[in-house]
Amino acid sequence: MTKISDNKARNRFEFYAAYYPQIYAGKKAYTVDELIEGIKNVDGFSIFYHVFHPVFSSHAIPLDVHNDFAFWIREQLHDESLAYKVSDVEGGEPRTVEQVRDDILKILETSTNKVRAEKPFHFITCRPVIFNTMKVASSIDEFIDVLSSITMRSIVYHFVFRRVMGYAPRNDFSLWLQQEFNAAELADALSKIDPQTYTNEESLRKDILIKISKVIYS
Amino acid sequence: MIEKYAEIIGENELDALFKISEKLKGVSVLHVNSTQKGGGVAEILNKLVPIMNELGIKTDWKVIRGDNEFFSVTKSFHNALQNGKGNLDNDNFAIYKKWQEINSTEVPLDYDVIFVHDPQPAGLVEKKGKQKWIWRCHIDISNPYPPVWDFLKNYIQKYDSMIVSSPVFGRSDINVPQFVVPPAIDPLSVKNREISSFTIERILRKFDVDPGRPLITQISRFDRAKDPQGVITAFKGLKKHIDAQLVYLGSPASDDPEGEIVYEETLKAAEGVKDVHLLLLPPDSDLEVNAFQRGASVVMQKSIKEGFGLTVSEAMWKGKAVIGGNTGGIPLQILHGYTGYLVNTPEEATHYLIYLLRNDEIRERIGRLAKEHVRNNFLITRELRDYLMVILLTMGKSG
């Protein structure tokens, strides 16, 4: 494996990054039923924003719930059981926001909660603003070095956003590792990380690097 | 100047700002508002405009003109939009229109993007040409007085996009894209940067405040929306338990003719209450504001209506536990029990004042979390980045 990490790729990996400006989605919910209605009708970017964007610590929610829907259900509907089920919905590969949306709807549709919230859930959507970080990797060694220090805006863009929004069938890192180095074991190890339950981007970076080091030094 | 923010926000965040601004090279931007000094909008523009120029985006700032009659009308607009109540007739709307006409002949339009801040200059959009127009709304428009909102809406619908400070203020009765951009503070300004304990003590003493006793501070205009009488009531409740002092510091703004009346009302409410200092200082009293926030044991912002409440972020940035009104943009800053406390009544405010003054560790822990929350979300570099992204998306240049 040490040899592989020195090999040069035919196509180098170019690191892009993105921010996701918030846009009011024009919908709000006071009850589980209204939440279901909203989730059914918002665009995929909105599901991304409420379920995966909390990976950034700037997206403030308490650490013990993993997405906006769960936080609101606990705070406003006072239904911890329902909140934790929604909180722990699976977001790993190959799931996209559409499958996550369906899973959350299935969980909510089993609920008998009839509480009306004092404060509504406001649906937000977003659009990515993407930029080239000008960082590149031509080998696995270089790739690891860049991952160690690059903005997490880049890691989330390649590792989460493009895959869950359906722009890529798999996270960009695994695709590149597989395609350029035939590093199936490494690619698969990264694919097993579910980003949905992270609420601190540096924890996600750490876990990605641990997975890589485990495969490389095993 | 922009490089100075790196040690606060980190190299990666600053680099992103440069990368995003590169996409706007050659674009010219004009900001339009109604006051040069006083209030959060003027304060943020004073910083944003030079930084945008430094990033290579040609940016200017124009302040509209108006007489007392016009600013009385726009203050009534402001109150009617935030409180859901009003008493405006066609004469008021005619005065508003007259000054839009006057100003439209004086505001230059040869820019690619025109940012119009708040309702006062919103009618300038009637002169819209090939520019992209963005309406930046700094106030709470979630429950407006319908006649005023309907009047204003006719203008807003002509904009290419608009910005609200919180999703709570989003409107479902207009088709204009509504970006959510909370305002922010400048950590390097005189108002927010570190100052010595000697300076803090000197300023407190200058205004007869005892640095050795607990101090509660509220910094805000003398405006009923900031609930100055509620602050006095909450302080009276605290005084029954703890020998504290209160400083309520406000500044007049040229577009707020009501300030003097509310100041008199507050003076009356504070009659006979010991250790209350009602200070009316000039709008540029930034060092004094800094000192009173840093010298405070607990900071209050007990608004009953609020656009955003930048004074909350100011105090949180200084590591203070803040008790804020549960309204407008304050809940975005104060996550109840984590980064401060939200209250609905003066009695609740009294309760948390006592709790925080009696528990040093909790006060300090909340202050630490509050500062990090502001670092992540409410610094000027984040707001600037959001504005640049709104321009990009409004111009259809996001990718």
Q: Secondary-structure map with pairings?
A:
The complex is a heterodimer of chains A (218) and B (399).
Chain A: H1 2-6, E1 13-19, E2 22-29, H2 32-41, H3 44-51, H4 68-76, H5 80-87, H6 97-109, E3 121-126, E4 129-137, H7 140-149, H8 152-164, H9 172-181, H10 184-191, H11 201-216
Antiparallel strand pairs in A: 1-4, 2-3
Helix pairs in contact in A: 2-6, 3-6, 4-5, 9-10, 10-11
Chain B: H1 6-9, H2 11-22, E1 28-33, H3 40-54, E2 58-63, H4 68-83, H5 90-104, E3 113-117, E4 132-136, H6 146-156, E5 161-164, E6 178-180, H7 197-206, E7 215-219, H8 228-239, E8 245-250, H9 259-269, E9 276-280, H10 286-294, E10 298-301, H11 310-317, E11 322-325, H12 330-333, E12 341-343, H13 346-358, H14 360-377, H15 380-394
Keywords (chain B): Carbohydrate metabolism, Glucose metabolism, Glycosyltransferase, Transferase
Domain Trehalose synthase N-terminal (chain B): 31-169
InterPro entries (chain B): Glyco_trans_1, Trehalose_Metab_GTase, TreT_GT1
Would you mind describing this structure in some detail?
The complex is a heterodimer of chains A (about 220) and B (about 400). Chain A is an alpha+beta fold. Chain A has 2 domains: about 15-20 and about 130-215, no CATH class; about 20-125, no CATH class. Chain A has 11 helices and 4 strands, in the order αββαααααββααααα. Chain A has helices at about 1-5, 30-40, 45-50, 70-75, 80-85, 95-110, 140-150, 150-165, 170-180, 185-190, 200-215, and strands at about 15-20, 20-30, 120-125, 130-135. Chain B contains 15 helices and 12 strands. Chain B has helices at about 5-10, 10-20, 40-55, 70-85, 90-105, 145-155, 195-205, 230-240, 260-270, 285-295, 310-315, 330-335, 345-360, 360-375, 380-395, and strands spanning about 30-35, 60-65, 115, 130-135, 160-165, 180, 215-220, 245-250, 275-280, 300, 320-325, 340-345. Chain B has a 6-stranded parallel beta sheet, covered by helices on one side. A 6-stranded parallel beta sheet of chain B has the order 9-8-7-10-11-12, with helices on both faces. The interface between A and B is medium-sized, with 25 and 33 residues. Strand 2 (about 20-30) of chain A pairs antiparallel with strand 6 (about 180) of chain B, so a sheet runs across the interface.
